[in-house]
Amino acid sequence: MLNRDAGLDIWNYNLRHLAAIARIADLGTMGAAARAVNLTQPALTQALARVESQIGLPLFERRHDGMVPTPAADLFAPRIRAAFDHAISPHVTTARLRALLALADSGSYQGASLATGLAVPTLHRAIKDLSLSLRKLLVERRSNAVVMTEAGHALARTFRLARVELEAGLAEIEALKGREIRRITVGAMPLSRARVLPAAVTRFLKRHPRVRIAIAEGARAELVEPLRNGQIDLMIGALREPLVEPDLVQTALFADEPVVVARPDHPLAGHPSAGNLLVGRGPELQDLARYSWILPARGAPLRDSLDGMFAEAGLDPPAVPVESGSVMTIRQVLIDSDFLTLVSPDQVAVELEARWLTSLGTLPRPFHRVIGVTTRASWRPTAVQAEFMADLLAVSGN
Length: 398
Hints:
The protein contains 15 helices and 14 strands. By secondary structure, the protein is of the alpha/beta class.
């Protein structure tokens, strides 16, 4: 998030004034913009002056034939438009936006009060007014707790995305002034942490040492909702086919071919076909089925594909007493047992090189998976985010 000084805190801005800025950029004159946002021209002039004072840069050049956007407006106005596309209407004020997000994030009015410094009655009033103006029940009381309704959760998601746009706009303006405060938040699934993400981060920071990169590690199930809510900018890992979330898009980086891995003295390490297992027919598949495995939980593409392969061969899938995607956990379980696993060679490159583990070979083609980036369909990357995406593609060989 942004540093909370007066110019960078979006809660210091009047949403109606920001809407007016976008309309000036769209329409080119103060008079037309004033009529569009239902303000008098003097009031619009004051609103523009206040926003320019807050960001510390002029947004328009005043000419006899109209208002010409400055570079600051060229950055900020599109972000304002995008924020208002995320369900911000004339009924939504800064106070109402802040109150709903604080309640959604904290889970209680008391927590929202502690997070914002606003009094509980003030938050109550803001959310009640928002609910009445939108004609939607946003929260309801159950026993001694306040619970967001489905409509409340949906609105909070769109409000978060609006907040992301406004914060991105303010960050881009600060960069225009020579003050780099931008931050990229990456959701990293296990495979991405092995090679592509560290390489891209190193490459990117050589050019942008002041940009902060936050990496949130986890499985896809843990990262997808923060991505959709705008808390994460992009997510890297195995792509899903089909992609079930209509508000997300995927970009391929590279194809990965997992290998079966075990300890070096595993009984199958001496198998005649070890190193080139063509499982799926013949005794090799039966041999693999005799051992316990450590794998991701069901729902992960790798796990589901493996189970499907055994089912197609008319065999029960092997036992999976341990479900984990942690390389550290996998390594220790394999070293101390006859367990098997299926992982990318990149994930266990150090272990294979040190001969703590050994590869028994690859599986048939259906196990080739695509590693890539998942983003929101509505995502408008900042300049540095676009550069980071370019670095991800470059280190992946694209």
